[in-house]
Amino acid sequence: MSLSLDDIEELIESNIEDAEAEVTRARGKHDDDHLAATVVSPAFEGESLVNQHQLVYDALGDHMTTDIHALELSTYTPEEYEEHAQ
């Protein structure tokens, strides 16, 4: 895989307003192209889960077909993430 986890986080954070992204290897998966991402952004406010995930896929662009083969996504608004973290 030509992108590092930091590269992927940077792509998400630079393409989604005020986003905080954490990208890790998917649990239990040993191949590099199965990843998990948690993304928190006020841009998700009022968006459906499908639209939230689409924003992340759009942020990653062509990398979703070339470098990343599977991405487990968790998306939250800052308020949702605060509640989730408690």
UniProtKB/TrEMBL annotation:
InterPro entries: BolA, BolA-like_sf, BolA/IbaG_stress_morph_reg. Gene3D superfamilies: BolA-like. It holds the Pfam family BolA. SUPFAM superfamilies: BolA-like. Belongs to the BolA/IbaG family. This is BolA family protein. It comes from Halospeciosus flavus.
